Amino acid sequence: MAYFLETLIAGLFAGLMYGLVAIGFVLIYKASGVFNFAQGAMVFLAALVFVTLVERGINFWVAFAATSALMIVTAVVIEALVLRPLRNRDPLTLFMATLGLSFVIDGAAQFFLGTDVHMLDIGIEDIAEDYGGLFISWFDIVASLIVIALVVVLAIVFSKTRMGVSLRAVADDTLAAQSIGIRLPVIWRIVWSVAGIVALIAGLLWGARQGVQYSLSLITLKALPVLIIGGFSSIPGAIVGGLIVGASEALADIYLGPLVNGSVSTWFAYILAVAFLLVRPAGLFGDRDIERV
Amino acid sequence: MTTVQDNILDVGAASSVPSGSTLLRTALVIAGLAIAFGVVPAIATDYWLSSIIIPTIVMGLAGISLNLLQGYAGLVSLGSAAFMSVGVFSAYNLILRVPGLPLPLVLLLAGVIAAAVGIFFGLPALRIKGFYLGASTLGAQFFFQWLFTNYPWFSNNSQSLTISAPRLEIFGYGLQSPVGRYLLVATVTVLLIGLAFLVVKSRLGREWMAIRDMETAASVLGIRVARRKLQAYAVSSFFLGITGVLWGFAYLGTADAYTYNLDKSFQVLFIVLIGGTATIFGNFLGAAFIVLTPILLDHLVLASNVAYLSDQGAITNLQRVIFGAIIIFILIKEPDGLSAWIRRGVEALQARFRR
């Protein structure tokens, strides 16, 4: 039983981290209808820049600020060079463009900063301790608190600030929002910047756990089933989806894996996502479109 | 996306020619066949055949396969390579376990098995729409990669989990040479292009386009949407299965699960978008782009001979950057894909003929 609980809890923690990556997607999807495949590349870029700065002896917070600034510059450049020329094109074209973008970001990051694996120490201990018979790492607890804090901040920004309201207006009806004077390029720049900073936080937490290396980029593929379960346009959905995927993946690996001759974590989440969709075609928190002829 | 009217008239580049010029179209087809089976094998060197022409044709065929599903039926697939791998592993096991099965039959059966798998993973399309379908097809992508690496039975318990191409022959006639493999690929491709045209021009193809353009309206008109969608997955996967066999056996000479990874699926997707959705010939332009760009970039880097680029890893990453940038550039500059080029070319030619 303790083993089951430990697996479950570890899965839930991993799921929160998936959710963190998924939030970056949701932000961009909400505001621009773009399914951003490059989110994983942004996580990798942010983590690699940060770790390089820290290794050169730069203070943690200075490095954080510098990397955030870089992510904002990246967002502005992406908006100008990729999004603006492609607006009003169909979602698949935009998706392919972000796929191209992920090649550019991954390639450029590794071209300039090298392909080495970097260890990243963000000052939180990652050793499991005994909490009433359950072994839980302090790192997991801090990471979850950071994720929860981030979600709360984003929720407040979206519901209370003027920027958040105009962002939701764009998400609801782009044309109507534009016609009342909301400037779309500005919204895009802001949203991609916020997504970039979320990617930085995700990159720090993931990078501290598994080292900063190219495989961080592939987190995109973990976030996808999370999004499908949670709905592409819901931030709480990203977190709940993350928890569901993380927990069930961990349990499936332990209990289903041995029966089928190996780890099932590469595909299990996708099959789960499809099963979910069959019951709820728009995800748990997704918007359901009404169709008219 | 082009409009309905466009696409119903406009199956492939050549047919954008008004119906009066059937003669021109027939001439183009005959010229194409003459080049494919006469000129190319006569003048192409072994290097060109093995490293450029064969992969371009096979990838073009993969593009057509996905285009049937995506361009015509409007369904998303991010896991094309999975169905290619099903094809090649089926073919391998058929040859291995059913001695004496002739190659054409093996190809056909591999296609049929891939089609069955395609129908299974297409089932969610009956309930799920749009991009969410990516989950099902990505599920296929990762599932088959896992299956073929975790169950060595599929690769006949080979240590490396790799399968090697059997001797390719038709009625005792060996096709091992580059020209032989080229002829095999060209013949299969011509037959499949013919089939693709038949399908697209048939009631099935027209109903796919109706579903793509407005599903609700299509169902009101009495189109059996569910059946048509599954047929789209079946046809597309049948094509992909055969393509997978050609890629493994006729191009690489070997295959394993990673030959058909997510990158390959994305390449097929790029071919469709760069070549142009809902065209047949545009796919070969897209495929040529996918096959040739890395080779050209390689040559460019070698020729430029920049000192700090001597590191192979740096070169690979530079190529990724350039490749990604070119893709974004093409998507921005040519919304209808490279096939729009052919169309303009054909129209310009016609204008000249009429004068």
Query: Which parts of chain B are unreliable, with pLDDT below 50 for 5 consecutive residues or more?
Result: 1-18
Subunit arrangement of the protein: heterodimer
Written as H for each helix and E for each strand, in order along the chain, the element string of chain A is HHHHEEHHHHHHH
**Proportion of strand residues of chain A:** under 5%
Q: Rounded to an integer, what's the Rg of chain A over CA atoms?
A: 19 Å
Indicate the percent of residues in helices of chain B: over 70%
Calculate the mean pLDDT score of chain A and round it: 87
Q: Biggest interface: chains and residue counts?
A: A-B, 48 and 47 residues
- State the separation between the terminal residues of chain B, measured CA to CA: 32 Å
Q: What's the count of strands of chain B?
A: 4
The overall pLDDT average of chain B reads 86
Question: Strand arrangement, largest sheet of chain B?
Answer: 1-4
Radius of gyration of chain B: 21 Å
Largest beta sheet of chain A: what is the strand line-up? Answer: 1-2
Discrete helix count of chain A:
11
First and last CA, distance of chain A: 54 Å
Shape category of chain B: globular
